[in-house]
Amino acid sequence: MKAKLPFFIDAIVLASAVIICLPLRMLQYGDGIEVYTGFYTNFGINFIIFYAVLAAAIIYFIVSSLLKRNKFHLDTSAAKFPGCGVFSALTSLAVLYSAFQSYSLKERETAAYVVSSKVPEIVFLLQEFFAILSAVFFLILAISLLTGKDSSRFRILALCPVVWNILRLVLHFTVTVSYTRVSDLMLDMLALAFYSVFFMAFAQSNSGINSEGAVWRLTVFGLGGALLGLICFIPRAVLLVMGRGTQIFVLSTADVSDLAIALFCVSTVLTRLVPGKTDERVEEKTE
After folding, report:
1. How far is CA 94 from CA 21, 90, 191, 231, 261, in A?
2. Contact 33, 41 (CB under 8 A)
3. Does residue 175 come out as left (phi exceeding 0), alpha (psi in the -120 to 50 range) or beta?
4. pLDDT digits (tens, 9 = 90+) for 244-271
5. CA 97 – CA 105 distance, rounded (Å)
6. What gap in Å lies between CA 186 and CA 177, rounded to an integer?
7. pLDDT in tens, 111-143
8. CA-to-CA distance for 65 and 70, rounded, in angstroms?
9. Rounded to whole angstroms, how far apart are CA atoms 131 and 195?
10. H or E, element range at 273
């Protein structure tokens, strides 16, 4: 427990930021964000507090991670991690559902917001392809974590979530609207950027290839990505349940993969990062 204290404090900061930001986000949908288009209409005090808390939490994660740099490593030993295994399996299912959602969303066009016609169809197909491969990776990882088997040999598959999120980010850049003036779109893009860096660091740490310095990125972009993912998913899901889905930006969705990835990131940081500069598997490779 003493060794986990630094990450326990990180978890408290994450939970506090979520508790503060979620009600503010719901208020913003009620008064401050234009229905359907997602544009800011009243950038009031709730927006200022919201982004201040969001920035403060991420800055804390950066400082905290730098202070713990080279003191922890990702535990890749042949041990069971049931929590991570369950969340990995749920992420596999969520990624598949997200791929279905994104394909349906591609068919949605309006006079104001369309996906750029300059984007080749192959980009959309690649996104779906890497989503399927990512789901396969999370399923294999789940089996490995639940049974205590080594998953580091699936190094190529471990890169699929990175490519999938990068492709999603690229397609967000093709939306013909201001990224800074549409609240949902900006948060989506920040979340995808954080996911991409997290999964790259995870792939490096899990395989033991160029893993030096990757742990601090796991913490910063894992916890930061989890915060953004929860802020993106939960308010939108609540709006859909309340029958107020039109208040969400037309090209944004309550993507269940945001929730699943957030849980996966948090469980990885809190349960699989252990004291030590490097793991035994990496040491054996260097001898």
Report:
1. 24, 6, 16, 17, 9
2. yes
3. beta
4. 888 888 778 889 999 999 999 999 999 8
5. 12
6. 11
7. 334 454 556 677 788 889 999 999 999 999 999
8. 9
9. 14
10. strand 273-275
Residue the block writes with tokens 């919201």? 50
If you search the block for the tokens 């399927």, which residue do you land on?
132
How many Å apart are CA 271 and CA 189, to the nearest integer?
27
User: What are 202-259's pLDDT values in tens digits?
Assistant: 998 887 777 677 788 999 999 999 999 999 999 999 999 998 888 888 778 889 999 9
> Which residue, 219, 198, 204, is CA-closest to 270?
219
- Both tokens of 131, joined, read 């989503």
* CA 26 – CA 15 distance, rounded (Å): 17
In terms of Cβ atoms closer than 10 Å to its own Cβ (0-12, 13-18, 19+), residue 116 is exposed
Tens of pLDDT, residues 29-86 = 888 787 777 777 877 888 899 999 999 999 999 999 888 877 788 887 777 888 899 9
**Residue type, position 31, single letter:** D
